Every structure is written in structure tokens, then in C-alpha cells.
Amino acid sequence: MGVTTVDKKLEVEAPVERVYNQWTQFEDFPRFMEGVKEVHQQGDERLHWRAEVNGKDKEWYARITRQVPDEVIAWESEGGANNAGTIIFKPLSPQRTELEVHMQYETEDFPEAVGGALGFLSRRVDSDLKHFKEFIENRGRRPAPGVAKSCTAPTSPTNCARPRMTAVGMGPACRARTIRAMAASRSRAKDATSKALACRPDCAGRH
Known about the structure:
This protein has helices spanning 16-23, 110-117, 120-141, 172-199; strands at 2-12, 36-41, 46-53, 56-68, 72-78, 83-93, 96-107. By secondary structure, it is of the alpha+beta class. A hairpin with a 2-residue loop joins strand 6 (83-93) and strand 7.
């Protein structure tokens, strides 16, 4: 019936790495994309979508056609009505990022064609981008679990809570590096404790 094209730009108060990482958490899409019910990643290059479009439940698969970390991600649908998109990530400053969005959607029937002609898709993309901006900026303002908001004694770093290392949810290479770092940290802590005990008068001669 026709193809609707949407081009948008959005500035987000967050580092480009965090913006890119959040956008590629595809299963979070229903949290800020209206009508999207589920997105599941199947392998490195395939996504399964389930969404409500003009009051109808629809499911389709999309294939990631290009992906450069912190720079760009692009996809296109497999079979059925064609829809495709490209998101370009541009760092404006260490704490500010611009998203450049290009989307194409092929309508399957007359109601969808009329909706596209009236700017429905454009308004939907505007709304989704606004929700994404709020989602990532609000998330960035919340303190991470296990990290203190402030140090009670700035001159004493040991009074500040430290983030806990975890290997959960990482790929094999990252998991291995994290486990090695955790082991090294425990070893350093053990050495520091041994030295402290050796220096205490009341511990002398107890070995």
C-alpha cells in the first residue's frame, strides 16, 4: 500500500556508551515503546517482536543488519510487511548523546496507509523517543545497588561503600576477566589483613 518514512533526532543527557547499551537491551523496549508487548533476541542477529498495531496483535522477526558498538545499529524485518530502522549514536559531550533515528514502515492495508498518511507513525516515534529519554535519564540519576550516595568522611575512603563486582549476565570473556579481578581483590584484602595483624603489639608472637 505504501511506505512511510520517519526521520528524527533526540538529545539525551547520558554518555554515548550508556545510551547505546540501553538501546540494545531489546527486551526493555516494551518499557518505553507504546504498543510493543514483547521483544526477544534469538542469537546475535535475530529479534522476535510482538506488538499491537492499529488494534491488531502482530508478530514478526527482524534481522540486525549492522551493529557498531556506541555508533550505529540497523535492522530490517523478515517476511511480511517491510519495516526497517537505523539508529546512529553521536557523542556531543562526555555526558550528552544525540540519537539520529531513521525508520521505514510498509503499510499492509488501507487503515494502516491512512494512519501513516496522517502522521500516526511519526507521532508514535516521537512519543517512544520521549519515553526512552525519560527512562534512561531517570535510571542514570538513581544510585547503583550497593553504592553509597556520599562518603561520610571524605578523608577516609574506607568509609565509602564500594560497588560489588558480579559476573552474572556477562559474556564468557567478560565473566572470566571479572572473576580474575575478584580473585585478585580478595588476595589483596587478605595480604592487607595479614600485614595489619603483624603490626599489632597484641598479635605479636601468636603465629
